[in-house]
Specification:
The chain has one domain. The protein contains three helices and no strands. It is mainly alpha-helical and about 55 residues long. About 0% of the residues are buried.
Length: about 55
């Protein structure tokens, strides 16, 4: 899961909670996505490719 996907998922969850104040509900598709997504915190993130790093350095 990259940062954009994480933020999209968070937005979906927040909007779902605000729309349905009585219960916290996820669609089956959201449950599967969250269950199978790699761990966001432990994943290494590279913003630049090797070529871009050479240009900067």
């Amino acid at each position: 899961m990259n940062r954009r996907e994480f933020l999209q998922c968070a937005a979906i969850l927040v909007s779902g909670v605000s729309a349905n104040q009585l219960s916290f509900a996820l669609s089956r598709e959201q449950e599967v996505y969250l269950a199978t997504a790699p761990d966001f915190i432990s994943r290494k993130i590279d913003y630049l490719t090797e070529g871009q790093r050479k240009i900067i350095a």
